[in-house]
Write a structure and sequence with these properties.
about 130 residues, mainly alpha, two-stranded antiparallel sheet, 2 helices, 2 strands, signal
Length: about 130
């Protein structure tokens, strides 16, 4: 029957399309990795160069709309916090001198070293190469 032959061919093509053409082996959990594709789980913890557990193994947490709004409000208020300088009892009070910054902070261009995204002009720092990327 032609229908069973078509179904069989579809299954065969589907299975062949999922075969790794290069036969590369993946690293198990806690194995060495440089990219997510190096790990069988698909998760490379780049700060430690080790494979992590698959994402579906992690606990999923969801916030209700009210919880989300309260977190947003807390973060908005946290920017207005004051900094209090406390010294030793024998020290004099800190002066009320404010520093005026005349120039903007220098950001790093693509290819320059970085350790955080905020250091790059485009706010993207590669996590294990420690370079600003596009």
């Amino acid at each position: 029957s032609s229908i069973s032959m078509i179904i069989g061919l579809c299954l065969l093509f589907f299975m062949l399309s999922n075969v790794d053409a290069y036969g590369q082996k993946c690293s198990p959990v806690f194995g060495n990795c440089n990219m997510h594709t190096d790990c069988c789980s698909g998760r490379c913890l780049t700060y430690g160069s080790r494979c992590g557990y698959p994402a579906h193994r992690l606990k999923e947490t969801y916030l209700s709309a009210s919880e989300f709004q309260s977190i947003k409000k807390q973060r908005a208020h946290s920017n207005n916090d004051e900094v209090k300088v406390i010294g030793l009892p024998s020290e004099s009070e800190p002066s009320n001198i404010f520093f005026k910054i005349d120039s903007a902070a220098k950001c790093h261009n693509v290819g320059e070293p970085c350790s955080r995204g905020e250091e790059c002009c485009n706010l993207r720092c590669h996590s294990y190469m420690h370079r600003c990327v596009t």
